[in-house]
Design a protein that fits this description.
By secondary structure, this protein is mainly alpha-helical. Helix content is about 80%, strand content about 0%.
């Protein structure tokens, strides 16, 4: 056995020496500044960066395409910082071109390149851009991951702007938690704490004003907004931060102007200065209507909400009601828009996960191709030794492929389960929106009943009876409308009219609740008025006269109503309804 193993051992030692010699002759140790391809790549990447700062994405894409032709040289030279700079500019182009999938992919490529250098603090602005997008989507999980990666980088940096970025990331994270419904006071305090850290560090270091001035107004506005929500901060301090937000903001940024006017209106409302609050809020609403182009923004229903509160405080209840209606319409649009955004985000996450798997697969293939190159170098040096190594390589490759395929199948199975859960969540949210829409319909019917000519006449006239046993406003409106119609349209001298009114006085909230509880369908206000008329014993002719309809219409309506209740054809519908009266 020893005589058979000895030649193989010697062969392996010689092969190792040959490969180590080949690896030691690394051509990448040359001075990169002398490489013309590297210089041209840097020139194109820098040109693209300048064009992107000038908001000229089309010209920047031409420069990036020129740099892409030299990408292979830069990768071979292992110029990781330059590669990160290129992928960062490419991601910024896709951000301007509204291609989120390519933008995310290239941002993470840039981060991966910067992490391979000792200057990984270049990735902090990228983390901030990603965090701001996750903040807009209220994605607390990804924000937490970004904070974990950005924290050690920021603490190792001496640049105060990096500390500001880290505090902003924490503020976005706690805001996302509050947006998910976790509105604990501790989270609100954390948001205010980190926003205070941002503005204090900005005011303390004047050397970063030029680099941060375009975005600091947003921090001042967020700080004032959260202090208003907290409610235990002096008005002077909040007003100071609003002034700072307007001072550092861009004059053409209408969204920031609307936000500042809204904050001033809310501050005046908290100080019970309702006239001044109405003035600021009306200015904000006018500016929103003029420049928003009907864009859906969660800030707009809040403006209408405070206008309604101010109108109510000033005694203009009709205007307050109109503002409530407008706010309900805006809230419906915002909810539908959020539902659409959620579906788009789920689709985007699925596509991003698929792209990441594809990139991982291509990366492994690229790594294997590099290994193949080195093996071919060994084959050129010693063909005989290469045959032995090729046999071992292909055997190992097969094992790796089997392992990779098995892991990929598990990942695909996990992705399918995750997608199914996300679809179920969408279905649940759709049901909740349907329920809210149904509730809104009921509210609109109640408002319509309140504003109908009959109800207005009943309320403004003298012939009205307020039943203290009917406390629900919606039921009270139906009761008053029925009472008024009997008094006005039936002969008061008839004994039947007196019997109707006497029976009507026995009606209470429990009657309406039993009426709703005995059917699985939702009854409109008119249908409930029919049921109330039959319950107090009114005949078809009197019901038709009260409701100004034909007797045949009353018969048809009584038949249809009877079908909605769990009674058979032999049961008298009037007796069934009378049993619901206490």
């Amino acid at each position: 056995m020893k005589t058979r193993l000895r030649p193989q051992v010697i062969t392996c030692i010689i092969a190792c020496i040959v490969l180590l010699t080949a690896l030691s002759c690394n051509p990448f140790q040359q001075d990169l500044t002398k490489d013309p391809e590297i210089r041209w790549f840097y020139t194109h990447a820098t040109s693209a960066n300048d064009l992107l700062l000038q908001n000229r994405p089309n010209q920047a894409k031409l420069a990036l395409d020129s740099a892409e032709t030299l990408l292979e040289y830069v990768e071979d030279a292992k110029a990781y910082r330059l590669l990160g700079f290129y992928y960062q500019n490419l991601a910024r182009y896709y951000e301007l071109a509204n291609h989120p999938l390519e933008m995310y992919t290239n941002y993470y490529k840039a981060i991966a390149q910067f992490e391979r250098t000792e200057e990984n603090y270049f990735s902090l602005p990228i983390y901030y851009n990603l965090a701001f997008m996750y903040y807009q989507k209220e994605d607390a999980e990804n924000l937490h991951l970004i904070i974990e990666k950005a924290t050690p980088i920021a603490w190792q940096s001496d640049d105060p702007l990096d500390k500001i970025i880290l505090n902003e990331l924490h503020s976005y994270y706690f805001t996302a938690l509050v947006g998910k419904g976790d509105d604990q006071p501790a989270f609100m305090d954390s948001i205010i704490f980190y926003e205070l850290q941002v503005v204090e560090q900005f005011e303390r270091h004047s050397d970063i004003h030029e680099r941060k001035k375009d975005g600091i107004s947003f921090n001042y506005a967020r700080l004032a907004d959260n202090m208003l929500k907290k409610g235990n901060t002096s008005a002077t301090q909040i007003g100071h931060y609003i002034d700072k937000a307007q001072e550092w903001g861009i004059p053409t940024d209408t969204t920031m102007l609307v936000n500042c006017l809204s904050l001033r209106g809310r501050l005046a409302y908290q100080q019970t200065n309702y006239t001044q609050a109405e003035s600021f809020l009306l200015q904000a609403n006018a500016l929103r209507n003029e420049y928003s182009n009907k864009r859906i923004h969660s800030m707009y229903p809040e403006i209408i909400y405070y206008l309604s509160l101010v109108a109510e405080k000033l005694g203009n209840y009709r205007l307050a009601l109109a503002y409530d209606r407008e706010r309900n319409e805006l809230m419906t649009d915002v909810n539908v828009h959020k539902e659409s955004q959620l579906a788009d985000n789920l689709h985007f996450k699925m596509e991003l996960q698929r792209r990441e798997l594809q990139i991982e697969h291509l990366t492994k293939i690229n790594a294997m191709s590099i290994t193949m190159k080195w093996l071919f170098v060994a084959i050129a040096v010693l063909l005989t030794l290469a045959l032995i190594f090729l046999y071992a390589y292909f055997l190992q490759k097969r094992r790796l492929s089997d392992t990779y395929v098995a892991r990929l199948e598990k990942q695909v199975s996990y992705s399918a389960k995750t997608n199914q859960m996300q679809l179920e969540e969408i279905s649940k949210m759709t049901k909740r929106i349907s329920t809210q829409t149904l509730e809104l319909t009921h509210l609109k019917e109640a408002l319509q009943l309140y504003s109908s000519p009959q109800t207005v006449a009943a309320i403004s006239g003298q012939e009205i009876f307020i039943n203290p046993k009917v406390t629900d406003p919606f039921f009270q409106a139906i009761y008053q409308d029925t009472y008024s119609k009997i008094k006005r349209r039936l002969n008061p001298r008839l004994k039947a009219t007196g019997n109707y009114l006497d029976t009507l006085e026995r009606i209470d909230n429990e009657f309406f609740l039993r009426l709703q509880g005995n059917t699985s369908l939702d009854l409109s206000a008119l249908m409930m008025q029919y049921c109330l008329s039959f319950a107090i014993g009114m005949d078809i002719k009197d019901v038709a006269e009260c409701l100004c309809v034909e007797p045949e219409t009353v018969r048809i309506t009584r038949y249809r109503l009877k079908q909605k209740f769990p009674i058979d054809d032999k049961t008298d519908f009037k007796i069934f309804l009378k049993q619901m009266i206490n």
